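User: Could you go from structure to sequence for me? I need the amino acid at each position, not a summary. Structure tokens:
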């Protein structure tokens, strides 16, 4: 009679497992992959121009004393097209923006810039995605907020939405 509680142990274990299963169903998992470079200097790189008439990009140019955005994009990226007006709005507000074109042909980058505008001061061509990988970037579009010393302060994954433009401008102003 004293060992009767042992019969309920399997039921209790099953209840705990069921509770853990329900908890994982209702608790969303983290889906964003955060860069390990936040609050660290931009990794060293020197990228050639992504298209004619636009200067290439190297990491030393990002430590010129001015906070800026570095936007990882591609001409073949549909969300990048939707993001283009917000980048133009940031440029119109005086935000310096540099680009890194991922696995893109020069003629396709040129067509993209003609069709959607060119908010970029410089665009580096990252044909092998080596800089993208070094940054911990998980896709396109992706934007990094860089302080005037070339330190990555924030990562924005996905499209910059119109309502986020004032917030981004304020964050860059605070870095001055």
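Assistant: Here is the amino acid at each position, in order:
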């Amino acid at each position: 009679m004293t060992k009767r509680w042992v019969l309920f142990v399997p039921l209790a274990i099953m209840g705990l497992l069921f509770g853990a299963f329900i908890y994982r169903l209702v608790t969303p998992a983290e889906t964003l992959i955060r860069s390990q470079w936040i609050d660290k200097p931009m990794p060293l790189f020197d990228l050639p121009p992504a298209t004619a008439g636009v200067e290439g990009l190297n990491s030393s140019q990002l430590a010129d004393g001015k906070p800026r955005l570095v936007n990882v994009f591609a001409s073949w990226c549909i969300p990048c097209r939707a993001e283009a007006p917000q980048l133009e709005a940031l440029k119109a507000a005086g935000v310096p923006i540099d680009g890194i074109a991922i696995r893109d042909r020069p003629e396709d980058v040129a067509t993209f810039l003609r069709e959607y505008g060119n908010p970029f001061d410089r665009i580096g061509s990252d044909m092998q995605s080596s800089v993208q990988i070094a940054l911990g970037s998980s896709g396109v579009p992706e934007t990094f907020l860089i302080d005037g010393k070339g330190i990555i302060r924030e990562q924005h994954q996905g499209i910059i939405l119109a309502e986020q433009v004032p917030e981004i401008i304020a964050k860059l102003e605070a870095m001055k």
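One structural detail worth keeping in mind: Helices lie at 9-26, 78-92, 106-116, 130-135, 165-174.
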